Hints:
single chain, alpha+beta
Amino acid sequence: MIRNGRRKIALTAIAGASVLALGLTACGGGSDSGNADGDRALRVWAGSQTPITANYNPFAPTVLHGALGPIYEPLFFYNKTADSEPVGLIGDSFEYNEDGTAITITIKPDLKWSDGKPLTAKDVAFSFNYEANNPEGNGLVSAEATDDTTVVLTYTTAQYTTEFQRLGSTYILPEHVWADVTDFANFTNEDPVGSGAYVVDKTTSESYTLVANKNFRDADKLGVKKVQYIAVDNNQTAQDLLAAGKLDWTGMFIPNPDDVTSNGKIDWINTPQDPTVLYTCSNADLGCTGPQTDVAVRQALNVAIDRATIKDKAFVGLTGDISPTFALLPRDEKWVADPANEVSPQEANVAEAGSILEAAGYTKGSSGIYEKGGVPLELTLTSVDGWTDYNDAAKLIAEQAEAAGIKITASTVQWQEFSDARQGGEFQLIMGGVIGTSVADPFQIYRDWFGGTAVESTSPVGTEVPAGRWNFSRYSNPVVDTAIQAAISTNDEATKKELYGTIQTEIVRDLPYIPLVINATQTFYNTKDYTGWPTEEDLYAFPPSWGAIAAGYVLTQLQPVK
């Protein structure tokens, strides 16, 4: 939704939290195990594998999921499943000035950090000025607290398009803690002080437990007072725990949901939102190596993939069709500039793949694999061990590519190795996901995933991608960067669509991320013991347990069944 410059947004407060007794609970659950009083732990798998390492730094690539929303919060919550008004968390309201270069924010009064110290507008101003939240090129001129509850953010240009980035994904930090943290990238923050509904109770190699923050706003309304995030090394184990009633909430792929819903406790919902892609380390100028740095190879692989087969065999028909523009359809269809780019090809076209490669100087060798200069066209493709849907899709892609004369070796790695590879750029192809936009506008993906060095969204191979940005492909295109910068400042839909058309032309041709499907985002939750989950009738938040910010909001809405 595009907001008018003078419009003031009043926001609704969310439910709060209450004090509780500390300690872990056993794996067992149910309404007969103390759940009526909300004193047993809600057991969650959000993707962590063993061993868990205590890291609650919201800027760290290995941050534990519970830090993002349950502990640290932005000013407002945006529901990515709908085009709706934001909900106040720390913030109460905000207003743009006439030209969109200043945002005046009012926060709720009498807020406290989890350690009991006052949370004021000075903390908010500090957070926006803090280096991790304010990378070079961010455009921030000043962030000033004019009184205890008012902050004015001033930028060099209008910030209409970046509203979610500023207000919905900038984590607010306690100045009295973070003012002394200079090396934010390596700060593990094992005892975090936040504003959210929960604080850390205990962290082990197998789980970490959060308990209610007694200083949280409206603390007496929180129904779930203890949350235990467990480590699970593969989907099958998580599925077994769901079926046995030992897990209350997770977001994962299960091809036959009846296997876990037949116990009478678990229900599920499917909300396809996030693109599944092949990451390619695409930019040789930034240090990427391998055949995938050739745009012709990426183009050939794109048309060699049989997406219809992948959807049916790897994702059992639960995924959505993806657009190479990375607009989410049908929600964002008005932003697709060229109808020819609305949906990626669903069937493989081996002949077209061959024509693309041959035009780029490749010839087919005696083995059936294309080569150039006597070097066969061979690539490595990794996915995370235990992510069965992604692993199956990777195998299918390898088979389909070989039919088109491209040799792909698919293998699996542990999560940490996956994370390190994409952060450092030490890979050729990765089967992975893209974080979908949190508002009905693809700008967030364009800036965070396709923005180059000029907009501080990527970095050379061997250095980590800037905090809060996700361009693991090392794609850097000055045409795209210029259009991104221009789109930040416009509140005119026609102008924005023209700029997006420019971006789309470049990324559809260059394919730094080869689009596959819109992922089947299945969420499974315990409806026998807890109420208040997002449903198809009331999809108030993106429901999976691993969702940053949204998961913290969902936790505040849950109540134990009496």
